[in-house]
Design a protein that fits this description.
Helix content: 25-40%
Shape: globular
Number of helices: 3
Number of strands: 6
Strand order of the largest sheet: 1-2-6-3
Largest sheet: 4 strands, antiparallel
Amino acid sequence: MNQEIVFKTLLGPHVSEKAAVVAEGSNQVIFKVAKTATKREVKAAVEQLFKVDVLDVRTVVTKGKAKRTRYGMGKRSDWKKAYVRLAEGQEIDFAVAE
């Protein structure tokens, strides 16, 4: 898998309270991924980019909320997230230390 496909598959980490609870409890990391990405593509991208062993990948398509705008009702885009479970003793550190 080349580097371009990796960066098109993984859009970034999803940071929320629920993501923090899941990360502490079950050694999982949550990523925003492309809507067309499959579980196999997500697993390969995470293993290649972060050099970790992935045990399991679960994906969820999150529906966009309906929001009121000045022009009437609008809708946010749907997006996909992936719950990636890592092997015991492995972790991904997103903090950049300089």
